[in-house]
Amino acid sequence: MKMPSVFCWLFFLTSCRIAGAQVNKQPQPDIKVTFVNIINKLPLVLDSAKYINCFKETFTISRLNYYISNVSLQTTGKKTIPELNSYHLINEEDTASKSFSFFISPNQYTSLSFLIGVDSLKNVSGAQTGALDPLNGMFWTWNTGYIMFKMEGNSPSSSVVNNKIEYHIGGFSGANNVLRKVHLNLNDTFFIHQEKITEIIIKVDLDKIWNAQHDLKIMKTPVCTTPGVLAAGIADNYSKAFEIIKIIHQ
Fold it and tell me: What's the pTM?
C-alpha cells in the first residue's frame, strides 16, 4: 500500500486547523452603547464627592441605578430595528453594567431610541432573571412593579433621619406611568458594518433631575418612593438627561 506523502499530511492538518478556527470564531457584536453619568460637569463619584444643585443645595450620592430597555435603531428608510431581549440595569457601582453590546443588521442608521424603565408587560410577568431579577433590589410588588430609577444619598437640606435623600421612581400604568421614551439623533448618518463595532457614548447629565421640567428641591422633597404625580414629574426631569456625545467606529 502506498503511504501518503508528508505534504499530504501537512495539507490535511492545516485544513483541519483552518476549519476549526472558523467554527470556533465568535462573531463580534455590531453596536456597543455606553452610559457616562455626569454631575456638575464631572463624572459621578459615589459617596465621597460633594455636589451642589441649581437651588444651592449640597448633597452626595451613594447609589444610582436605572433601567434601559426596548433599545432600537432607526434606518434612513424609517425602519426600526430593535435589540432582542432588551433589558439592561445600569448600576454606577458596576462599571461593566454601564455598557452593553448587541448584533444588528448592516444598514444606514440615523437615530437611537430606548425606554427609561421596564415596559408594562415585564412588570406583570412574574419572576424574571438577569437584569430583571428581583434580587437586584429594583422590584417592589406585582402591582407596583419595577423601580425604574433609583438615586440615594445625603444632604444637609434633607429633614429626614440621617439627612438622607431617596428617590425610587416607579409606576407603569395610567397617570402613574413613569416610563419615558428617549429618542436621540445620531447627527451624521452612519453605516453599520459586519464584524466592526460602533460604540455610541451617551452622557447622562444628572443635574437635569432637579429642574429640567419641574422643580425638585431637596429641602421640600428629600424622598419619593411611591408611584404618583411626584414620581412622574421626576421622571420627566431625568428623561431630559440623555445626550449622545461621541460615536466611535472601531
Answer: 0.87
The DSSP-derived string for 115-184 is EES--HHHHTS----GGG-GGGS-B--TTT-BEEEEEEEE-TT--SGGGEEEEEEE--SGGG---EEEEE
Whole-angstrom distance, CA of residue 239 vs CA of residue 184: 11
Tell me how far apart the alpha carbons of residues 83 and 152 are, in angstroms, rounded to a whole number: 30
Class of residue 246 by CB neighbours under 10 A (exposed 0-12, middle 13-18, buried 19+) = exposed
All three cell numbers of 171, joined, read 409606576
Q: Where are the domains of the chain?
A: 30-249
Q: What is the pLDDT of residues 84-129, one digit of tens each?
A: 999 999 999 999 999 999 988 888 899 999 999 999 999 888 768 9
C-alpha cell at 242: 440623555
d(CA 72, CA 191): 15
pLDDT digits (tens, 9 = 90+) for 178-195: 999 999 998 766 677 666
Q: Which three cell numbers stand for residue 19?
A: 476549519
